[in-house]
Amino acid sequence: AGFPPNAGTFDRVLKPRAKDIPVSVALEMVEFMEARGVDLQPSSVNAVMAVCARENRWQEVLALVDKEGQGGIRVTLDEVGLNILLDACRRGGQSVRATETIQLMRRQGYHTGVRTFNFAISACAINGDAPRAVGLLDFMTATGLKADVVSYGAAMKACMKAQAWRRVVQLLDEATDEGVEPDIIMYGTAMSAYRKCGDWASALDLLTIMKQRRGVSPNLICINTAISACADARQWKPALALLEAMPSMKQDPDAITLAAVMNACARGGEWERALHYFDTCRVEPSVVMYGSAITACGKGQQWERALGYLGEMLSSHQWHPPSTLICFNAAISACAAAGQLGEALNLLETMQRDHAVVPDIVTFSAAISACEERGEWETALDLLETMERDHAVVPNVVTLSAAVSACGKGGQLDA
Questions:
Q1: What predicted TM-score, i.e. pTM, was given to this entire model?
Q2: Which end of the chain has fewer CB atoms < 10 Å from its terminal CB, N or C?
Q3: What DSSP string runs through 24-86?
């Protein structure tokens, strides 16, 4: 009949094979022992958790630890197992569970070093739990540990996801004050935060600091973020200066760079300059670049040119609905700005019929604005009804104002 299985047998069978055994087999072995009421030794639990972690199966790690609470086998975790659990929390963004695990480890007297705290802070970064991330960072320094690049980088990422832009840049300052040398990820995160705050000048300052520091050179992502910050603020001159300085930073512009530069020019009233960059670029135009070019056409009331760019984009077979929607919206806006109501309405129909692109609030606002220019109040009200009835799009202030203005210009103020 053989000997009944026990925890020691399980441990001897599993541990030597933990590097190669599939997750499914390891979990089946756990179920086999559970069915016979055998509790697992900490080393066995560690081995099973390591198998799951090896294949990024963090859900199974958490489920294994939860078995005890569900009336299954008793799972006792040692320091190694708790660190594996923390890593699973990190991968799954389980910030609450990670914080509780840190507290448990400290109560049980286990070592909680920088790496342990970094697992927990990284879990907060995954799901944007900024309060816990900053709390863990403060707690680890209060215990005498020195936070490192990973600690601050993860806390900054958590704040970024939580849209706590100012806290992101404060953490960068705190890191440098504590003698931590920021890496390119930290600088890039702070630069993105400055962009969200509309602080384009500070984004450029960070880029300058990076150029002056040894070991950290601005990469293409950082440069694109800085140019985009300039574009958001209609600062076309600094955007062009960055573009021209890219060779000195040993970086070549890509489609994202050029689209951002074009946006900066268009928003800064330099629509002709924006189109010049599009027409003379040496990279394959992306859908985003086409969108920027069409937007620039709208600024210059070049509606025919806008339709030409839209046609090029659609024939390039590189389009996909989200980006294509932006291009159609820009083209409809260009037609509206030039008083081309018929073309605007034709685009609204074409995008749905021929390209399966669903209009949004921007689409209808642009189309109704085209009606406003011509005083076509009946069409404006029809569009208002269609957007709510057929597309469940709720009108905003811009849409309603354009519709009211169309009624006014059509002599229908009581409509």
A1: 0.82
A2: N
A3: HHHHHHHHHHHHTTPPBPHHHHHHHHHHHHHTT-HHHHHHHHHTGGGTSS-B---HHHHHHHH
